[in-house]
Amino acid sequence: MANELEQFDPFFYEKECQKQGFLAVCGVDEAGRGPLAGPVYAAAVILNPENPIEELNDSKKLSEKKREALFDEICQKALGFAVCSEDAQTIDTYNILNATMLAMRRAIESLPIP
Question: Would you say the pTM of this structure is higher than 0.85?
């Protein structure tokens, strides 16, 4: 049932966490894993449920122009956000999965709200 609901509401899991009393719910994602060349990036964001962002959706479902416009709106309306990266040397040392997880952890830890 949860999978069916999640398909219709991209904020299903955030709402479930808020119902359980969590005040700040962080979303995190990566970019740059596919080509295995250069750094891997991770972004973490805490959206403001009192100030929703219309048309926010999976980035793969949005045009580049729409993603860029939403980026500015996210930066303005979010309760907090952070972007971190790990370089090719870190990827070579720890592998792409661990470097990605490290970038994600650093992004989460960089948020202004715990």
Answer: no
